[in-house]
């Protein structure tokens, strides 16, 4: 416990993972919380008149030890969890929620904040200071500072329940994921799987002390089987298991939690004077209102749905032509889509993997970032890591100055939640003349190495890697004064722009030439394959587009004015997405029960932001394309956007970069919808 509360005597103040007693996080959080409370008391009890420096800035800099310990804990609970950490999470979550509520409902503290806010027009503030002042005041008001004592007590109770429910939701979904495995012992059961995927499945079985092949719900394993396995009944079994996470009649069922969380969020919003949780959330987003989001989604749907129907009919006709099933089911989509792609583009996704060994792709990402932003990545094996598969890097600028520390963690394991994400262990900020540099992390679940053979990535995984590195760059390049505005501390529907725009380089011959080389022969990826990758970039995009829109509408439906009237999770979901569903309904499958983005993560009433950011990214990348994808002037403008974090409104940052507001046409053209 002591090690967590002391200054780390480590290279670059990195986390000493190996020396941490992970059973002591709760105790460490409680002690760090006392220190944070001392910071709050010092601000509140200050006898001097409230100013920006002694109140707003002091509050933003407060509780640094608590923030550091908390980030370490929650990052480990996502990437390297165990029963002990999960048990502590159930206690730590409510403790931190209660502390945040104590701060928000501290009338003396809020009086000082309000005094500074009310006098804001009488002072000269920088843009960053004005943004922080407005953000601080709104944070207090939006979390109950203006409520009476009874209402504040109600809000505390709601927040405590929401914190516990979100943690329990994540625990149950992970438990369902880990509980399923499909152990196959007959060669015919893995027919169609590429040799590489069979080796990985065999290696999984061997590690589990079994013979044959092991297929799990880890996404690389799941996706490979759904795409290539010829055994349709096994694809059906796997699809239903994947889609039933949290929806089965067992102790991990989350339906009650879904209803509870959505109702509590609505109750909380009404208590604060909002019509719904979506109204509450979107007040601080670029989109501003649920009505604007719905108009945005419906506008895109008008282009996406006709295209999706055409693509579905094309896929069905192709399936029939090669003797496939009369009725296309959801577990047929990836399998026959891959075959159609091969026919249309003479293109085998599996055949691409030898050109994307993970070490080579990572080095390629590093070089592309160097060309764009003049950053260099140097492996440092003296920096402690939390698992043997994790690597640590020093990130330095063109002058050799340390810009950041980066951790990478790429392969699935039992204590790691599914998906891919970027996070941080330390935030960038300036204080007392020191520019504290960030410690960022990229975490994924890619196809793992098989024995002595390296991990070969699918093109989708390559794209995911670029996506998460885009998020990491937002933190790595941060150059702000205040931690509360640093890096990814931006409006949620702006936060995906850096990640999604970076994916575009995957499709460019000039970028692919850097890293797409055969792992055995060193041969460059053939130009004709590069052209096919580009040509297939919007293959069945209408179907995928419609799927994302349906998820965004489903998210909003759980957070609208009538969320408390929902009785059945499955019936509600079916009704909401019925006009955007192309495949026959599968009763046992439910998206909401495993929808961690909105019931555990931070995307509640914000899932639309993926498409919102796609509009921004397509428009922004169109600018890069017009000047050259490595154009130094455009890259410098985007680097500036990244470095400023949340110090200016997103619309202003974008206009400063692009010279105008974003347009939707580049996205619709890129997706082949117009």
Structure overview:
The protein is globular. A hairpin with a 2-residue loop joins β7 (429-431) and β8 (434-436). With 674 residues, the chain is α+β, with helices and mostly antiparallel strands. The chain has four domains: 2-146, Glutathione S-transferase Yfyf (Class Pi), Chain A, domain 2; 180-232, no CATH class; 246-324 and 545-674, Orthogonal Bundle (Neurolysin, domain 3), CATH 1.10.1370; 354-539, Neurolysin, domain 3 (Orthogonal Bundle), CATH 1.10.1370.40. It is built from 28 helices and nine strands.
Characteristics:
single chain; 674 residues; alpha+beta; Glutathione S-transferase Yfyf (Class Pi), Chain A, domain 2; Neurolysin, domain 3; 4 domains; five-stranded mixed beta sheet; 9 strands; 7% strand; globular
């Amino acid at each position: 416990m002591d090690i967590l509360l002391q200054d780390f005597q480590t290279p670059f103040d990195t986390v000493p993972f190996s020396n941490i007693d992970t059973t002591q996080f709760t105790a460490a959080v409680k002690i760090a919380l006392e220190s944070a409370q001392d910071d709050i008391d010092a601000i509140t009890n200050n006898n001097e008149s409230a100013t920006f420096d002694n109140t707003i800035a002091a509050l933003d800099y407060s509780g640094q030890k608590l923030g550091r310990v908390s980030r370490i804990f929650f990052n480990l609970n996502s990437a390297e969890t165990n029963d002990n950490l999960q048990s502590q999470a159930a206690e730590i979550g409510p403790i931190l929620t209660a502390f945040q509520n104590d701060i928000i409902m501290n009338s003396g503290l809020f009086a000082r904040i309000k005094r500074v806010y009310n006098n804001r027009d009488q002072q000269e503030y920088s843009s960053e200071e004005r943004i922080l002042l407005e953000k601080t005041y709104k944070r207090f008001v939006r979390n109950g500072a203006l409520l009476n004592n009874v209402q504040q007590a109600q809000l505390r109770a709601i927040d405590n329940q929401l914190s516990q429910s979100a943690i329990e939701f994540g625990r149950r979904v992970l438990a369902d994921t880990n509980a399923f495995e499909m152990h196959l012992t007959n060669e015919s059961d893995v027919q169609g799987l590429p040799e590489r995927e069979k080796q990985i499945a065999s290696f999984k079985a061997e590690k589990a002390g079994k013979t044959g092949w092991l297929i799990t719900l880890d996404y690389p394993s799941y996706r490979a089987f759904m795409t290539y396995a010829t055994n349709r009944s096994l694809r059906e079994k796997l699809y239903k298991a994947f889609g039933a996470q949290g929806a089965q009649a067992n102790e991990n069922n989350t339906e009650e939690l879904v209803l509870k969380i959505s109702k509590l969020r609505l109750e909380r919003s009404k208590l604060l004077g909002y019509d719904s949780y979506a109204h509450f959330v979107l007040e601080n987003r670029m989109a501003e209102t649920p009505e604007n989001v719905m108009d945005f989604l419906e506008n895109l749907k008008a282009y996406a749905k006709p295209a999706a129907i055409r693509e579905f009919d094309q896929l069905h006709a192709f399936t029939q032509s090669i003797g496939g099933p009369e009725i296309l089911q959801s577990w047929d989509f990836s399998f026959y889509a891959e075959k159609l792609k091969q026919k249309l583009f003479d293109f085998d996704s599996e055949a691409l993997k030898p050109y994307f060994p993970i070490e080579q792709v990572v080095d390629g990402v590093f070089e592309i970032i160097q060309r764009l932003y003049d950053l260099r990545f140097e492996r440092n094996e003296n920096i402690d890591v939390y698992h043997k598969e994790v690597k640590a890097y020093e990130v330095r600028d063109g002058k050799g100055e340390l810009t950041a520390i980066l951790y990478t963690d790429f392969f699935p394991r039992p204590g790691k939640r599914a998906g891919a994400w970027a996070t941080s262990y330390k935030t960038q900020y300036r204080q007392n003349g020191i520019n504290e540099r960030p410690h960022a992390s990229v975490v994924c679940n890619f196809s793992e190495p098989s024995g002595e053979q390296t991990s070969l990535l699918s093109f989708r995984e390559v794209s995911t890697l670029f996506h998460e590195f885009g998020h990491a760059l937002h933190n790595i390049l941060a150059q702000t004064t205040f931690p509360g505005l640093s890096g990814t501390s931006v409006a949620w529907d702006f936060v995906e722009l850096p990640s999604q725009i970076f994916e575009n380089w995957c499709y460019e011959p000039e970028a692919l030439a850097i890293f797409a080389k055969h792992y055995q022969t060193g041969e460059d990826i053939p130009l004709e394959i590069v052209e096919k990758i580009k040509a297939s970039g919007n293959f069945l995009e209408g179907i995928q587009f419609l799927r994302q829109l349906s998820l965004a509408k489903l998210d909003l439906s759980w957070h609208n004015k009538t969320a408390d009237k929902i009785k059945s999770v499955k019936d509600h979901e079916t009704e909401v997405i019925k006009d955007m569903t192309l495949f026959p309904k599968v009763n046992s499958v439910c998206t909401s029960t495993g929808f961690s983005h909105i019931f555990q993560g931070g995307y509640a009433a914000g899932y639309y932001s993926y498409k919102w950011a796609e509009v921004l990214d397509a428009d922004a990348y169109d600018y890069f394309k017009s000047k050259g994808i490595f154009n130094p002037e455009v890259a410098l403008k985007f680097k500036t956007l990244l470095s400023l974090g949340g110090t200016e409104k997103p619309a202003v940052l974008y206009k400063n970069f692009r010279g105008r507001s974003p347009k939707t046409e580049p996205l619709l053209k890129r997706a082949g919808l117009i």
